[in-house]
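Protocol step 4 of 5: obtain the predicted structure for the target chain.
Materials: sequence only (see below). No template structures provided, no constraints applied. The aim of this step is simply to have a reference model before the mutagenesis design in step 5. Sequence pasted as it appears in the construct record:
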Amino acid sequence: MPSTRLEDRAIVSVSGPDAENFLQNIITADLDALKPGEAKPSALLTPQGKILFDFLVSRNGADGIKLDCRADIADDFVRRLTLYKLRAKVEISKQDESLVTVSWGDDSSASQTDSGWLRDSRFPDDAPAWRSYGAGAATDDPEAWQSFRIANGVAESGRDYALGDAFPHDVLLDQNGGVGFRKGCYVGQEVVSRMQHRGTARRRVLIVSSDNLPTAGTEIVANGKPVGALGSTAGSVGLAILRIDRVKDALDSGVAIMAGGSDISVAIPGWAKFTYPEQASSEEA
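Step 4 output (structure tokens):
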């Protein structure tokens, strides 16, 4: 089974008798639904509902939580969490030696769980992925992991969107369990709940493909209107957060969707439950 070490990831530890309750009150994921052996997507939002930090959350013993985040934002993440600490009985720290190893593509759940690996729940059952926070063996190049991630429509900040610029719905946290809609309040909860109940999410992660896919950041247009920008790519496949109402307009009218002068195809990730709008948009640019 392929595996690789992710040098660009870090682990933030939150421990103590109030650790779970502390995080439950500020992050998007519902920790009541977090299973042992699972690494679940989540985010810490601005009060306006934009993603400030994205990460994977998992249990660490009886009163500990691990947060798997980008290494370049880990120190800022610790500082932000500390601002919310107040009188909570928790210890927040970045682990000095964070070893994050991933493996993927082979459903060997029993052996992985027994050996301490965590199931990355962003990925579907037919394309499983696993994470280890110890010294796991690495047999493949990190780009092989990125190709697998992109092929399965799993977006990450930095590569696919800028922090502070996306709502949880934009990056499918509402689709993969990264938002707990039945839990109590958390930072930004009012905005996210309103988007959910009103069905107003118009930007979504789509898988794009082309024989001549341009570089990340290239604007994507349809019917003369910008619909988004290209995120991370792997060969002829990439991810993009696109305006699905404008994509729907283009698909219905047979107009090409273009990126850097190249025609591109778009597809909803197979595991996602959202669809294109039933009616084409009448919005003007």
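Step 4 remarks: The CA atoms of residues 96 and 220 lie 40 Å apart. The chain has a mean pLDDT of 92.
Proceed to step 5.
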